[in-house]
Write a structure and sequence with these properties.
The protein has 367 residues and is an alpha/beta fold. It has 10 helices and 12 strands. The strands form 2 sheets. A 10-stranded mixed sheet has the order 7-6-5-4-3-2-1-8-9-10, covered by helices on one side. A two-stranded antiparallel ribbon has the order 11-12. Helix 4 links the parallel strand 3 and strand 4.
Length: 367
């Protein structure tokens, strides 16, 4: 690709490649044989008050049965605290919209008392001044709020008229009570990419210090809306924008964890090199107790590792997740790709388990 952004990592291609080779060696020789659970996602509810056109878990459209009770969540937390060093772990609360869970504050108060460092993702619409104060009291350390465009596009994308002002107000309420890290996360799609510069200026005015920008992924409900996907030129525009603005002014701009980006772009849009964390650093407990990798991964029976109601998470973590820790995805067009050593099949959440190939690969787009 044509390099229009300034190299902001200070690293040349040779140094980057050396780093990525070291990371690949670490993945194969250390991390896969001895995985370390650093991020545990807890899907506290499948319900949501929005109906986003890209939702990976299709919230609002799924048949909800057998949701974990409050006491079952407490027992799961006790088990995790007993069996893991939670001082080295982040508890990541998600949904749906977490605040729709009626016992949300009871659960998070207990988690905080047990010593869990916890953060959450939210659409922000339910974070009133009082809710923000309660979140502070129950130990919320980090929060990512979704804002997917300026008002018109955000509300269209989330199928929720009037939600933009509530979301922005929720962010301001969090900032007012001094939550440790408040971040805006924006999904970039075909209809809002022209708003990048305007969003950048608007979000700086809101007062957040971090803006996480990610591309729409061909998963979940987004697969039903192919017109939302980005063109090659739009991908290039997106990554050049992040690289250009990454360290500008008082608000960092960073890319998410998804996708190997090639030697030129790696380390230019995020802090470290690509590594899919699913099953090696990250696990999740779903709303019904199922244990899996990243919550964005397609919920196929063969990828469910167990259920917290009957299985011990420590045993599942140590003895399960085999497909996440081997090279069974080194097949098809990935089999002989020289970049496989760096991406290992790229992100699990965009892998097509029917055709056994990635639904999205940045090779041919960025490099």
């Amino acid at each position: 690709m044509k390099k229009t952004g300034k190299n902001n990592s200070g690293l040349n291609a040779k140094i980057k490649k050396d780093h990525m080779l070291q990371l690949a060696k670490y993945r194969e020789e250390t991390l896969r044989p001895n995985p370390e659970l650093r991020s545990l996602f807890l899907e506290i509810t499948p319900f949501c008050n929005e109906h986003c056109l890209h939702c990976g878990s299709r919230c609002g459209d799924i048949d909800v049965n057998d949701m974990l009770s409050k006491e079952e969540i407490f027992e799961a937390l006790r088990q995790v605290k007993r069996d893991f060093d939670i001082s080295k772990m982040r508890l990541c609360i998600t949904g749906g919209e977490p605040l729709l869970r009626p016992e949300f504050f009871d659960i998070m108060k207990r988690a905080n008392e047990m010593g869990f460092a916890w953060g959450m993702t939210s659409n922000g619409t339910l974070i009133t001044q009082e809710a923000a104060k309660d979140l502070k009291k129950t130990g919320l350390r980090t929060v990512s709020i979704s804002v997917d465009g300026l008002k018109e596009n955000h509300e269209w994308f989330r199928q929720s008229p009037g939600c933009y002002e509530k979301t922005i107000e929720g962010i301001k309420n969090l900032l007012d009570v001094n939550i440790g890290h408040v971040q805006i996360t924006t999904v970039i799609y075909h209809k809002n990419i022209h708003e990048l510069d305007a969003m950048y200026e608007e979000f700086k005015k809101v007062g957040v210090r971090s803006w996480r920008v990610i591309n729409i992924e061909p998963i979940g409900r987004a697969k039903d809306n192919p017109d939302l996907m980005l063109s090659k030129e739009e991908y290039i525009r997106l990554f050049d924008f992040i690289r250009k603005n990454r360290f500008e002014d008082k608000m960092e701009v960073t890319y998410g964890c998804s996708h190997y980006l090639g030697t030129d772009m790696e380390r230019e849009v995020r802090k470290w090199y690509f590594l899919c964390n699913a099953g090696v650093y990250t696990a999740s407990i779903m709303y019904n107790g199922d244990i899996g990798g990243c919550l964005d991964i397609e919920r196929r029976a063969e990828l469910i590792q167990g259920n917290i109601r009957k299985d011990n998470l420590k045993e599942v973590w140590e003895n399960g997740f085999r497909d996440f820790r081997n090279d069974y995805r080194k097949t098809g067009k990935c089999a002989n790709c020289p970049d496989y050593q760096f991406c290992a099949g790229d992100s699990f959440h965009t892998w097509n388990f029917e055709t056994m190939e990635p639904n999205l690969c940045m090779k041919g787009i960025l490099f």
